Hints:
By secondary structure, the protein is of the alpha/beta class.
Amino acid sequence: xxxxxxxxxxxxxxxxxxxxxxxxxxxxxxxxxxxxxxxxxxxxxxxxxxxxxxxxxxxxxxxxxxxxxxxxxxxxxxxxxxxxxxxxxxxxxxxxxxxxxxxxxxxxxxxxxxxxxxxxxxxxxxxxxxxxxxxxxxx
Length: 139
């Protein structure tokens, strides 16, 4: 199987695996049940595949409410516990303003202006696995 292949984590949200990174592309409104399913499925996929990063592209999202903001923060927290990093890319100015107005700080979540910048950020901070030992941060 090639390094880049489509892995449908849920029936609604496409996920592309690029090496050690899962690329999640959110488009339009994300229903609460779909967001919760994505959160659960991503955690299971991280464990199953051993990826070291999750890149969530939200450039197609017009509005982020407090629920979706919390889901993004929870995805980042779960990924961190599973030795993976999370980056959100493509945030629109209106979304950033809304998150600030809602008081959502999204701890553990890094941001990038574009998907390319997000991939670079994940490549710079990808955990390193030592043979027979736990993952640790690269220098």
